[in-house]
Design a protein that fits this description.
- The chain is mainly alpha-helical and 292 residues long.
- It has one domain.
- Helices cover 75% and strands 0% of the residues.
- α2 packs parallel to α12 (255-267), α3 (37-58) crosses α10 (215-240) and α12 (255-267) runs antiparallel to α13.
- It is globular, with a radius of gyration of 18 Å.
């Protein structure tokens, strides 16, 4: 049953997830120093898949699709694969700080799509102001790139924006499906579908790239696989089953700020005035759009 009120413990847990997810794009950027984008996705979720399968078995959750589940599992699996693939490619082509800010427009897409796809999760005029604010922040980020912004790529930025939209769509679909399909089964089948597709796409588009595994790259891949791919995903899916997505994603307004901080500390990327203003507007928009 979906609830409107969120306990304090759950609030802090979602804020922790926001911080961990905020650092994910930075981890992707570090991992791409040694591993091609599509292969990196395959390795990341290839590590996460058996860990989640073991967890599901310990919880006595069957991973075998039941009647009526095959089509929903295929849908989320394909969207998941495309979303991660273009995120990795986009992150490779732009700065991690920019990718983080742009990707984290996805809660705005969640609120907008939930208005049409989830009964009772309405987008009020007040939330519409938040949508406008968040996208104004993205305009600031893109304008800076067009005007004076050094580094990165417009193609990379656009790929990350597309990934943000697909992540928003995926969140809303999972919210609908998780009421009838166990969260571990949803997550495992995304990876069962995604992992072979990631490697197949790597062979098709990027097979000539070299692989290197220095310690930072290994640590970054393990962070993506275990911390984000297992802990964050399972925790998020279990919370989504009990609370409205637009009530939860308000707590993710800090994620782009954490990502900017991580890109500054770990990659030495500068934080320009335009990027900081854009990130702040995105964070404010996420807060307004989902304010309950």
């Amino acid at each position: 049953m979906t609830k409107d009120s969120i306990p304090v413990r759950t609030t802090f847990l979602v804020l922790l997830l926001a911080a961990l997810w905020g650092g994910n794009v930075v981890a992707i950027k570090i991992g791409l120093r040694g591993i091609p984008p599509l292969a990196a996705a395959g390795i990341r979720f290839g590590i996460a898949l058996p860990l989640i399968a073991i967890w599901a078995r310990m919880r006595h959750v069957s991973l075998k699709p039941r009647a009526g589940e095959v089509i929903p599992l295929l849908i989320v699996g394909l969207i998941f694969t495309i979303q991660i693939a273009i995120l990795n490619w986009g992150t490779r082509l732009t700065l991690a700080g920019r990718a983080t800010v742009i990707l984290h427009t996805y809660p705005v897409f969640v609120a907008f799509l939930a208005h049409f796809m989830i009964p009772g999760d309405r987008l009020s005029w007040y939330r519409l102001i938040g949508v406008i604010c968040a996208f104004a922040g993205i305009v600031v980020v893109f304008w800076e790139k067009l005007a004076i912004g050094p580094g990165g790529s417009m193609v990379g930025d656009l790929l990350c924006l597309g990934s943000g939209f697909l992540l928003g769509l995926l969140t809303v679909l999972i919210k609908r499906y998780v009421q009838a399909i166990a969260a571990p089964r949803l997550l495992v089948w995304q990876m069962i579908i995604g992992v072979p597709l990631f490697f197949a796409l790597h062979l098709l588009f990027d097979s000539g790239s070299a692989f290197e595994f220095p310690p930072p790259v290994v640590a970054a891949v393990l962070y993506q696989a275990v911390v984000v791919g297992v802990f964050c995903f399972l925790t998020w899916y279990s919370i989504l089953k009990r609370y409205r997505p637009s009530r939860l994603t308000v707590l993710f307004f800090t994620a782009p700020l954490w990502g900017l901080l991580a890109s500054y500390l770990l990659l030495g990327e500068g934080i320009s005035i335009g990027l900081a203003i854009g990130a702040g507007m995105v964070a404010l928009g996420i807060f307004l759009v989902n304010r309950g």
